[in-house]
Amino acid sequence: MCTLTLSASLPALKPSECLGSVCPSATPAQYSVSYFGLYVIALGIGGIKSCVPSFGAGKFDNTDPKERVKKGSFFNWYYFSINLGAIVSCSIVVWIQDNAGWGLGFGIPTLFMVLSVDFLHQIPQYFLLGAAEVFAFVGLLQFFYDQSPDAMKTLEEDFLRFFRHLL
Question: Which of 3, 27, 131, 157 could form a disulfide with 126 if both were Cys (CB 3.0 to 4.6 A apart)?
Fold first, then answer.
């Protein structure tokens, strides 16, 4: 979404304005940025729509009647949210794009995606996965970190210093 927002907002990434009835074509770089953004979104949607239902269903115990009801509620809310998002994107966002510009039309969903990632980042990982899975995953990451070359470790330290500076 960030790529599409930038391609719709930055003058260098969008085609020149039409002069009368003559509209100049987009440059190959402008096409590349736009198509890259569309392909990444398609890849992300393909991954999220196939993984979230099974990930959510795996959190419920089928042998417990109360859990089965909660599992049904999870799927109801999941598909309600998916369809609500489709309705909003096909109506409100399109209206904004037509009346206020494509940059704002892509910028609003981008803002909500950034906020949702921030929200998920705030939730402790053990709440999402369970304590055992988190510790096993952290152990696996620690193993790969210990096996990585020293150059990779210093690169990670540089990234951490950079992001701490931003916060």
Answer: 131
8 neighbors 14 (Cβ within 8 angstroms): yes
Distance between CA 140 and CA 57 in Å, rounded? 25
Residue 9 host element (H or E): helix 2-9
pLDDT in tens, 81-110: 888 988 988 898 889 988 998 888 889 888
Whole-prediction pTM value? 0.59
22 forms beta bridges with 19
Q: What is the dihedral of CA 129, 131, 136, 142, to 10 degrees?
A: 100
Q: Are 103 and 9 in contact (CB under 8 A)?
A: yes
DSSP secondary structure letter of residue 14: S
Enter the DSSP assignment of 12: G
Full DSSP string of 81-106: HHHHHHHHHHHHHHHHHHHH-HHHHH
